[in-house]
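Intended use. Records like the one below are meant for learning the mapping from a protein sequence to its folded structure. Do not use them to infer anything beyond what is encoded.
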Amino acid sequence: MISSVLTGGRPPERNTAMDWKNILPQLYRSRIDTRFVSHSEQLAVGASKFGGRPDVPTDFVWPVFETDTREDDQVKERPLAFLAQFDCAQLAALDKEGLLPHEGVLSFFYELGSQRWGYDPKDRGCAQVFWFKGPLAPAEFPAELEEEFRLPELAAELSGAADAPDFQDACPALEYPWTANDYRIFDQARRELGMDYPANRSQLLGWPDIIQNNMTLQCELISRGHYLGGSWENIPMEERSALRTPSVREWQLLFQLDTVENGDFELMFGDCGRIYFYIRREDLAQRRFDRVWLIQQCC
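Structure written out for the chain above:
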């Protein structure tokens, strides 16, 4: 649920201690945990899964992104890797806020050769999300897609849970001018509420498991054309401050993908990192999945 504290409620005074144990439950969101596991039987078309061949309509055009890579300096169009797809009908029972479509398949793609970080407006297109409805069939991999980016197929096990924000999201959500001491109190309250800090978690919706800093402000600033690969000093402090709280309310985590391991296979982002697909809530409601923005964070 999204409390009134996220929709215009009065923020606490600076000289008033934040009662995090009572405030945090008001910020809970519905999260769908995803575990990727081996399977012995053939998965049905449209089933939730990681890797393998995506199930697509007949007019599907495999997405590409023009880039160099970490191994090749040549800038050219490169096919995105298929990461995962989810059966929306299966998600519906776990999506307590009703944010996702109730039919069709959501499919996630990302260019793995360059693994863009999402701090440059020019990164648009390095990650794409599709919502497919109607008859689907497994797509053939494009010949240009390198073998290492044709990921093994794993079944997705899904479960629902309540999710609390990390400190870096909770404070701007509440317009709370935090100090270093606040984190200790926040952390204790979060743990007492049974909200763990997982070493590895992939999920749909909910709040992100942040490795570095809040990402919603980054999404908003990049959407306005700002390059964030260096210092932020060229962005007026007034603009950053004005957008910080609205960004937390407007940008929603769609999919968080952590390291995936299975047998000898491992897909890792940077150094034990994660990728995060964000979308504005308005765009999610209108099913404008072409407007997602990807951010990568790592240790």
